[in-house]
Every structure is written in C-alpha cells, then in structure tokens.
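USER: If only I could read backbone structure tokens as easily as an amino acid sequence. It would mean a lot if you studied the pair and described how this chain folds. Here is the record:
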Amino acid sequence: MADVLIPLLTLIALEVILGIDNIIFISILADKLPENQRAKLRLWGIGLAMVMRLILLAVISWILKLDQNLFTIFGMSFTGKELILIAGGLFLLYKSTKEIYHKTEEPNPNDPVNVKTSSFRKLLSEIIVLDLVFSIDSIITAVGMVQELWIMYTAVVVTVIIMLIAAKPISEFISRHPSFKVLALCFLMLIGVALLAEGFEVKIPKGYIYFAMGFSFLVDLIQMKTVGKSKPQDP
C-alpha cells in the first residue's frame, strides 16, 4: 500500500506546486474581465489544463520523444521540451512585464491601452499557451517519478480539483490587494526566467524559486498587516 500511496501523494504535491503558477496567471488575466465572467474563465482555464494533461498522458510515448535532441547550434543541443520551455518562458516574461508596466505607470484615460478591451476568447487563448507549457513540463516530471499510468491520471485529476477549489480565493485575494498583484506578476517573471534557463539546460532548483516566492509573500503580508494597524481608526 505504501508503495502506491507515497508516490501518489508526492506526485499530487508536486503537481499542486507546479499548478500554483497556472492559478496566478489565470487569476491575473481573469481580473481583466467583468466579474460575471471571471469564474467562467478560471473554470475553462483550469479545465483545459486537466484535458491537456490527460491527452498528453494518453500519448506518453510522443512526450518521451520531446526529451530527445532535435538539433545542435554552436555546440548546444535542443530538445522539443526545451524549445517549448523557451517559448513559454519568453511569453511569460512578455506578459508579466507588460502587465507590471501598466500597473505601475500613471494611467492615462485617453490612452487606448488603458481601456479594458480584452475579450474572453483572447484571454483564454493566452491561458491555453501557458497550459500547454506547464502541462508538458508536468507530464515529463510525472513520467520520471512513477511508472504506473493510473497513478499519473489520479494525480492529475486530484490536482485539478484542488486547483478549482483554490482558484477563486486566490483570485479574489489578488484582486483585493494591488500590491500582491504586482508581487504575483513578479513571481510569473521569475517562473519565466526559470523556464527560459531550463530551456537552455541551466538548472535552477525549483526549491529556491518557491522559497523566494514564499518569503516575498510573507514579507508583503507582514507589511500589509503593519500598514493596516498604523492607519487611524474612524471614530
């Protein structure tokens, strides 16, 4: 029993950690929509992530080939997985940098970029791109950890259920606190750099990344509580 339970719980924990990046990205994009459409975008985004993972598991032999060298440039070889990670990292860096710029610069009401014109389809297409990147990374990690296919399927389904439950409170928290929104975007930049580095075969231990994210979150939380207490109370 332990031979099955321990790998299953370990894989679920790993998938949840990898899924946090997805939730943050989806939450920030959902904030661009009217309130009555945000839950729908979160549901579609996370649901498609599960569908992609299940489909990729079904074609696992093709996924394994993504770790094989495709070509070499200046003595550096590239695999299919690495090309996808590089593309995903660049996309994540572009999106997060763009969002930080619009959040921190003084808004101009006459500037068309400050008008919320994002459509549901456009945002969903951006989520699909990142879903694909995270899904391939997740499945290759899962294949390296366990051999039984049913354990991978179970871990994916359980992880998506956890993500669906956690998506709304995380999204609402980020929406209520602008400073955390900027911090979340910085997290996405960090993940983008990590994906880009991994694509060029530079391994950055994920533990360092998530420790830095957790420490930054704790500092921002303490600052928020301190500022809240220092504000004069209404009589």
